[in-house]
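Protein chain data
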Amino acid sequence: MNNACVTITGPREVALLDAASPSPDRGQVLIRTTYSGISAGTEMNVYRGVAPQWSQRQDPDSGLFLAGEPEWTYPLVYGYANVGVVEELGPAVSGVSVGDTVFSYTPHCRLVVANAGDVVLLPEFPDPRRGVFLANLNTALTGVLDARPSLGSAVLVSGLGVIGLLVTQLLRRTGVGLLIGVDPVEQRRQLALEAGADLVYDPREPVPELVRERTDGRGADIVIEVSGAPPALMQAIRTAGFNALVVAMSWYGGSFDGLKLSGEFHHNRVRIQSAQVGAVNPDLGPLWSVERRTALATELLLALPLERYITHEFRPEQAAEAYAMLDRLTEPALQCVFDFGGTA
C-alpha cells in the first residue's frame, strides 16, 4: 500500500507524493496519522531552503555545523507534530497498544513509524487536534525554563504566534509581575491580552522607551524573543534592562545588518540565552529532564485553552496552498494542521 507524504521538493516547492509504506522494526510502532501540525517557524525556514542543514551538516561530536556534504537533500519529508493511532507493534514493544492515540515527532505522512519509547500516550480530547500542540508546548516550556522568571519579574514576549501565546500563558502561571506582548498583528495582540498579558505593543512603537516608562526606568528583567526576526532581536536587546536576560527561541534567517553589539548590549551587560527544545536548562539541576518536561507539557494539553489557536485546516492534497499561505502570510494564521483522517 502506498503512503502519502507531504514532501518538500525544492525551495518553496512542496507536493504530496507516494512513498513505500513503512513496517515497524524491533521496539517500534506503526502509526496511522489523523492530524499533523504545521510549524509556522522552523518548518517555514526548511520550506524556504534557508535552514543551515541545506548547506551544512552538524558534527555530532563537536556540535559545529560544518560546510561540505549537507545534512538534508531534496526531496525531504518533514514535520514533527503528529497525532495518530497505533496500528501495529513491532517485536519487543511494551507500554503501547494497538488502538492507542499517540503523539510522535514524525513527519507529515499517512503512515509513520516511531520508536515506542519516543511516543507519548495522549489522553482523550473532545477535539483530537489539541494533541498537535504537544510539540509547541515543549518548545514554550523550554523557553520559560531557560528564562527562570521570579515572582514580580517584568517580562516581555516578542512574537505572538502560537509559541509566543503559549509562553504568555505559562508566564502568567508563574507569578511574574508586568507581562508585555509585542507583535505587529492586532489579532495576536488581542489574544495575548486574553492569555494574560498586561500590555501589548506594536513593534513599530518605541517599545524600549515604553517599557522603561512602565518599569521606573529599569527596562525588562527578561525578554523572550520568539519571532525569529533579526530586527526583533535588536529591539529585545534594547528593551532589556541592566544585566537582564534575552532568551532567543527561534532560528534567525535573513540579514543582521541592523544588529549592533555595542550600545545597549555591551554597556548594559545584556545576556543572550539560546533556548533549544532538544535539552532542558542544566542550571535547573538533575531532577529536571526532557522526560519530565514532556510529562508537564502533556498535563498542560488538558489545562490550557488551545483550540482557539487553530486557525486553518488543510487536506494533505492542499499542502502547496498551506505552505504558500504561511510563507507569505496572505491571511492571519496561527496553528495550521493537516487532516489525514480520510486520506485513502
About this structure: Residues 149-280 form a domain with the Rossmann fold fold (CATH 3.40.50.720). Residues 133-147 form the longest helix (15 residues). The first strand starts at residue 2 and ends at 10.
